[in-house]
Every structure is written in structure tokens, then in C-alpha cells.
Write a structure and sequence with these properties.
It contains two helices and four strands. By secondary structure, the chain is α+β, with helices and mostly antiparallel strands. The chain has a four-stranded antiparallel beta sheet with strand order 1-2-3-4. A hairpin with a 5-residue loop joins strand 3 and strand 4.
């Protein structure tokens, strides 16, 4: 199981590779593209688990669900 500092190191290494055009600020990764803000955050949750928070543009949510 990872302690908090090990989780931070792994998260930083992994997300830098997966999200190269995102800027990191206190474990939150952001970018602006085409007038939209995209946000990704991974945070430790419970023993050995983490939670992922995603900021999605409203248009993406509307296109994915027919109303």
C-alpha cells in the first residue's frame, strides 16, 4: 500500500505522462482548449484507493445523453 508521499510521486509521474499539455497546480491538472477548461484531479481516498474528479465541458455532457 502507498503512503501519501508515495502516492503523490506516482500520481505526478503518471499524470505528467498521460496529460502532457495540462498544467499542474496542487495536484489539480488543468488546460484551456477551444475556450473550455478541462480539469483532472486524483486524490487519495481510503486505504489503497483513490478518487478521480473530472471537470467536463457542458457540451460534452449534453452530447453524451439524448434528451
Amino acid at each position: 500500500m502507498l503512503d501519501t508521499s508515495a502516492f503523490r510521486r506516482v500520481r505526478r509521474r503518471m499524470l505528467r505522462r498521460l496529460l502532457p499539455d495540462f498544467a499542474e497546480e496542487r495536484a489539480v491538472y488543468r488546460r484551456r482548449r477551444d475556450g473550455q477548461l478541462h480539469v483532472v484531479e486524483l486524490a487519495p481516498y481510503l486505504r489503497g484507493c483513490f478518487k478521480a474528479n473530472l471537470g467536463l465541458p457542458f457540451e460534452v455532457v449534453l452530447r453524451s445523453r439524448p434528451f
